[in-house]
Amino acid sequence: MNNNNLEKQIRELGKANIQELPPLLRSRQDSLYASLATIVQDPVEKEKKKRIYPKITAAVTAAILLSVMLTAIYPPTLANALKQLPLIGGIFERADDIGLQAAQRLGLTSRLNSSDTHEGITLSAEEAVFDGSRLAFSVKREGEELEGKLAGVTIGADGKPFLAKGAITSAEVLIDGASLEQFSDGLWKAMPFLSWIEGAESNTAIFRLVDSSNSGISNKPFPDRFVLTVTLGLNGMDEPFVLQIPARKATINKISTPDIRAQVGGWSLILKKLEYSPLTTRLSLMLEQDTDEDHTALSLVGFEVKDQQGQVLKDISQKVLSTSNRSLNVDLLTEPFEKHPNMLTIRGYLYEFENPQSKNGAFKTDSSGNPVKHYIDGLEINVLVK
């Protein structure tokens, strides 16, 4: 857009009467404020969270705030002009994922050029990054009278959740034209895992596709290059949206096979493989039960990874597959470590149930709503990181 034209519109609109902010622009205003809350952090809070955020100047911040305030005098010409002003940074930069933030900062991401439009709604693939284990890509939605979230439920004025028009209801993907079932040679347990979460703005979503080559069933990893075809269904829309995501491995991963074992109280934990990149940390584990005790406990064991500073790496996925009634493979994928550690610690734990006498049902939660973990003493592995 010509900056002179925009400035002229702003000067002319400054004489307009102040009116009530319409829902569409209020949504845009809230989205901008949400972006600022993510980008502009108090130094103490920034150090506390240890996240990687882009730096912006006071002038840029003032420009964004001016754009938000000007929506209070919202004639359509200005609204349309403001829609064309890009947010600072990409969707990955504002994600609560240090791997995606690092990938953006290191220039590992690729900009995408794929979109589809139906009934006045456009979905666009924005950016992607791939490290061989995880393919992440972002999607943005544009359209009139869409006030609900693209990913997940929206909370209405009555406080009740509902699925808004234009929210994602289904997602299917093809890898170079092959379905996930075909890609995994019909082994559904070895199929790559697809999931998505809401981005920092309600009209964005971040998808991730994780391969299952560490499952112990299939050794078929993703190729270094492929094209992902994504078909998305939206609530209230008759036709699906189709996007093309070119994937290219952008990292050189560090891989080690330490084969370290920890044994305690009838349990054995083996670390078979450690792989890490700026995008993810990945561990291949085997858990064995050495006794004839109740084997249902096997399926209830979870694992966490922390660095030498005690920072627990945030889970991306944990895929568990039984290889016998006494053993299982665990494919554990987490966010990367922020600073290269000399050592990582893997710990096994069991969730506590609300009913202590039960081995199923609802998990017991703490004051923050997180499941309570009971760590298994001695089921711990320390591994040096090269």
Automatic annotation (TrEMBL):
Keywords: Membrane, Transmembrane, Transmembrane helix. Residues 48-140 form the DUF4179 domain. Residues 254-360 form the DUF5643 domain. The chain crosses the membrane at residues 56-74. Coiled coil: none annotated. The keyword Transmembrane applies. Signal peptide: none annotated. The keyword Ribonucleoprotein does not apply. Pfam families: DUF4179, DUF5643. InterPro entries: DUF4179 (IPR025436), DUF5643 (IPR040680). This is DUF4179 domain-containing protein. It comes from Paenibacillus odorifer.
